[in-house]
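A quick aside before the break. I want you to see a complete sequence-to-structure record at least once, exactly as it would be stored in a machine-readable document. Don't worry about memorizing anything.
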Amino acid sequence: MEEEVPVVVDTPVTEPPPPPPPPPPPPPKPELKASQLQTVYFDFDKFDLKSDAKMKLDANYALLTEFPDAIIKIEGHCDERGTVEYNLSLGEKRAKAVMDYLKKRGIKESRISIISYGKEKPVDNAHTEAAWSKNRRAEFRIISQ
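That is the input. The structure line, written in tokens, reads:
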């Protein structure tokens, strides 16, 4: 009888492949910046929207539709002429005119708040018509996104 010789077969041991790397994180969500929203200006003692203001608000509307979660505040401002009380009221009318325009275009009222600063926050402190015209404005702030 012949003796059986065990046959040893060398098979290489293979390690399982490493798991695939995790997917990259999604790119950051773009955010609306207040500087992208255009300021609108008003004539002395007025709160009606001129045609150039409506053009700016149309551009602002387009941006706001691109960022449907953005909540904004519209700030109404006046020049230094007039009483504190009068200018607070006029600034509110300016902010409301802007809000109403955006609402008519389709922005939900729940996304907009308004405030008046009257003459308390001028952008130009000079006592000239040029300075006053810069101060008669409605500006936008981003509250949340």
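Two observations worth writing down. Residues 84-105 form the longest helix (22 residues). DSSP finds three helices and four strands in the chain. We'll return to this after the break.
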